[in-house]
Amino acid sequence: MRILLAEDDRTIAKGINFILQQSRMVVDIAETGAEALELAKLYDYDAIVMDVMLPDGEGYDVVRRIRATRNNAPILMLSAQTRAQAKIKGLQAGADDYLAKPFDQEELVARLHAIIRRSKGFSHSRLEVGGVVMDLAAREVLVKESPVPLTSKEYAILELLVMRRGAVLSKENFLDHLYGGIDEPDSKIIDVFICKLRKKLAVAGVDSLIGTVWGRGYIVRDTPAAAPRLPTAAVAARALAEARVA
């Protein structure tokens, strides 16, 4: 997952960045509202963490301007203000959740997972598609309740595909979410990751979850495409031919 963090206090930003990276999230940090607006226009974030007090204005105004651009990324606001009115103001501005400082690290991660899930149409932390279960809380992948051993990159790729099921994702989409524009390798590495991921899922008993859209990228559909079936006449003809050979 890729997160935009708008926080001007570098110590706090560094701490939040560490917390989110521990949960395998890629984080971009903006120190001003203007910088947050520009980054929100450039990249497709899974969520935005917005501090209320920024050097060039209030986070409430930044949230309104982000929503004015029809950016629907879920937004979690952070503030030292605990008054109900401050929370109401944030939610009315377009935020999806509000967390007061100081906050518990696990609560921050849990709230981010929750608003991201809801934005993608999932209500539970266990996401099931095509026989594969992704447990976002435990950060593991299961097939028939047995864990599938994935590397961090393989997990991140499958997570992105499942969270955005039904959408074709390009190699650039994967690179953005895996590396965040820093030291990105050649895009062919995504083909390698996908190949290894498919093999591991096939060994576990799922071999048709990840589809390829030639020239565009990869997709996970709500219902994986079934193998093509021959017409009845063709099946009968093939059976007759096999019988003659026998």
From TrEMBL:
TM stretches of this protein: none
Any one GO biological process: regulation of DNA-templated transcription
- Which residues are modified to 4-aspartylphosphate? 51
Q: What is this protein called?
A: Response regulator transcription factor
For the keyword Transcription regulation, the answer is yes
Q: Its Gene Ontology molecular function terms? A: phosphorelay response regulator activity; transcription cis-regulatory region binding
Query: May I have one GO cellular component term?
Result: protein-DNA complex
Tell me the InterPro entries matching this sequence: CheY-like_superfamily, OmpR/PhoB-type_DNA-bd, Sig_transdc_resp-reg_receiver, WalR-like, WH-like_DNA-bd_sf
Judging by the UniProt lineage, the source's domain of life is Bacteria
Q: Which SUPFAM superfamilies match?
A: CheY-like (SSF52172)
Response regulatory domain: from which residue to which, for each copy? 2-116
- Provide this UniProt record's keywords sorted from A to Z: DNA-binding, Phosphoprotein, Transcription, Transcription regulation, Two-component regulatory system
What are the OmpR/PhoB-type domain coordinates in residue numbering? 124-222
Q: Which PANTHER family match?
A: REGULATOR OF RPOS
DNA-binding region in chain numbering: 124-222
By its UniProt entry, which Gene3D superfamilies does this protein fall under?
3.40.50.2300, 6.10.250.690, Winged helix-like DNA-binding domain superfamily/Winged helix DNA-binding domain (1.10.10.10)
